[in-house]
Design goal:
- The protein has helices at 3-17, 24-31, 35-49, 74-82, 91-103, 108-115, 120-128, 151-157, 174-195, and strands at 56-61, 64-69, 106-107, 132-137, 145-149.
- The protein is α+β, with helices and mostly antiparallel strands.
- The strands form two sheets. The protein has a three-stranded antiparallel β-sheet. A two-stranded antiparallel sheet has the order 1-2.
- The chain starts with a helix and ends with a helix.
Length: 196
């Protein structure tokens, strides 16, 4: 396979890995190639991102490579986050928020096990909107981030403490869960709309 093809694959892997990044060994294992070849691919990708016409850069943090945005573009990214059109939350973000609210502190992996799908993007959205935040790290290998709700979350819902959330029923059937989820999301959306 050509180096340009490898670069595209590694770029995709790094995009999917998100803020956790990937080590040389992980990339090497996935590609089934030697580490020195992966180093060459990483170095070429890093050089590609150094040009002015690219919006990303490739960085190494604690032995893991990850894609990040360029600092000089931060003003535009802030405008995107602060713009009124981005104040509504997707269904995925609302589901993730409900899980964090009731199960905090919770890791991204635990959220994904409950939802059955990846949650990196919803978590980024919720952190950017200051509705959830990092509240600690799990002990042991990997030291995964633990997420919890913020004061802003309580303000949105008019709660004094997290204990004021409505209790979850002891016996849950699918129809009840859907009704409760719809009510929760409807109330949350109303609150966001009112804050505009």
């Amino acid at each position: 396979m050509k180096l340009t093809q490898w670069k595209g694959i590694v770029e995709g892997l790094l995009f999917v890995a998100g803020d956790e990044g990937l080590s040389l060994k992980q990339i090497s294992t996935v590609l089934e190639v030697e580490s020195d070849i992966v180093e060459d691919i990483i170095n070429e990708l890093r050089d590609d991102y150094l040009t002015e016409d690219r919006g990303l850069r490739l960085v190494e943090v604690a032995g893991a490579f990850q894609l990040t945005t360029k600092k000089e573009h931060s003003g535009f990214l802030k405008r995107l986050i602060d713009s009124p059109s981005t104040t509504t939350l997707s269904q995925a973000a609302l589901e993730t928020l409900a899980i964090v609210a009731y199960r905090q502190p919770i890791t991204r992996q635990e959220i994904e096990e409950i939802r059955g799908v990846k949650t990196e993007r919803p978590i980024h959205t919720l952190v950017a909107k200051a509705l959830i935040k990092e509240v600690g790290r799990v002990e042991g290998t990997g030291r995964a981030i633990l997420y919890g709700t913020t004061k802003e979350f309580l303000d949105y819902f008019g709660l004094k403490t997290i204990e004021e959330l409505p209790p979850l029923p002891e016996k849950i059937d699918d129809e009840y869960v859907q009704e409760e989820a719809d009510l929760f999301f409807e109330k949350f959306q109303e609150t966001i709309d009112e804050s505009k």
